[in-house]
Amino acid sequence: MKESKKGIVTAAKGLIVGSTMMVPGVSGGSMAMILGVYDRLIHSVSSFFEDIKGNIKFLLVFGIPALLGMFLFASPLESLINAYEKPMMFFFIGIVLGGCPLIFREAGIEKVTWKEVLNLAIGAVIVVAISFLPKNLFASTTGGFSGFMILFIGGIIVSIALILPGISVTYMLLVLGIYKGVLQAVGNINIPYLLPLAVGLIAGIIFLTKALETAMKRFPKPTYMIILGFVLGSVGQVFPGVPTGIEIPICLLLGIAGFVIIYFLSKLEEQKTKELESDTANALY
User: Fold this and answer.
1) What number is the average pLDDT over the span 246-267?
2) So what's the pLDDT on residue 41?
3) Concatenated DSSP letters for 3-44?
4) Quick check: is 167 in a domain?
5) Residue 122 contacts by C-beta under 8 Å, 6 or more apart in sequence?
6) What does the DSSP 8-state code read for residue 84?
7) Nearest CA to 177 among 136, 144, 147, 219?
8) 64 in Cβ contact with 14 (< 8 Å)
9) Nearest-10 Cα torsion for 61, 14, 280, 56
10) What's the pLDDT tens digit per position in 47-72?
């Protein structure tokens, strides 16, 4: 019964992460970290062969609802954003900021020094720097080996956005100039276009997850502070401008609502993690 309940919770988190992944400026990695499932995801991929059965089960329970969320909610969310851009974006800003205290606590920092501030700044600068990449970097893809390699490299770059919190996959696809191409290829099931992209994506995920898990274990403070910088830096991508008139109270209320919802969800998740660690420790003695 307990295992079944845990699976339902994991599936629900996958649905939430998937539904927000296609919103420009919103990072699926940030949402996964806010919901307390990020570390488990990274470990499942980077240490896949250590527990093949358990990792496959977790990835399927999380991944299938995530894909379902992308297909079911991406279009309605896009319609809401188009109709009510500023209120919706302020809601997402609240969500992003609501998860920041959890990431800070994960870093285990007792006293903030210049090193923490520097790592935070590094993360934020990297996210902001992405916006200065040449637009449509991989838009003019051609056939043959050169076209394959361009899309392969594009897949590796996109994997960075997929793995690292604070960097939006959709935004990265837009920067690279392949967002429309990917949507059309998915709709038309264009395998020659999607295959090199998928191969690069998988290769990037395998390499990055291992490196990231190692960094989080060996250097938790700087790693989590850089990640927090990624997340804070992403707020600039989501910010839709200063609201006016009746939009001002609506945006403020939705921003606060987003913050409160995620803050308490993250606190609840943190409490569950502590209880699980306590139960595990008691079982050992």
Assistant:
1) 87
2) 86
3) HHHHHHHHHHHHHHHHHHHTSTT--HHHHHHHTT-HHHHHHH
4) yes
5) 226, 229
6) S
7) 136
8) yes
9) 30
10) 888 888 888 998 999 989 888 887 78
What residue type is assigned to position 273 of the chain? Answer: T
- Average pLDDT (35-45) is 83
Would you say residue 283 lies in a domain?
Answer: no
User: What average pLDDT is seen over the chain?
Assistant: 79
pTM listed for this prediction: 0.71
What are the φ/ψ torsions at residue 81 (nearest 5 degrees)? Answer: -65, -40
Q: How far apart are CA 225 and CA 195, in angstroms?
A: 35
- pLDDT bracket for residue 254 (50, 70, 90): very high
pLDDT 10s digits, 190-199: 788 788 888 8
Is 280 part of a structural domain of the chain?
A: no
Residue identified by tokens 């969800």 is 265
Q: Which residue range is the domain that position 71 belongs to?
A: 2-84+93-266
Q: Which residue has the tokens 């977790």?
A: 58
**Mean pLDDT to the nearest integer, 210-215:** 83
Q: How many domains does the chain have?
A: 1
C-alpha–C-alpha distance, residues 31 and 153, integer Å = 25
Query: What dihedral do alpha carbons 185, 186, 192, 194 form, nearest 10°?
Result: 110
pLDDT at 118: 94
Report which residue type is found at 52: I
pLDDT value at residue 256: 94
Contact (Cβ atoms closer than 8 angstroms) between residue 170 and residue 24: yes
- 190-224: string of b/e by CB count within 10 Å (b at 16+)? eeebbebbeebbeebbeebbeebbeebeeeebbbb
In this structure, is residue 281 part of a structural domain? no
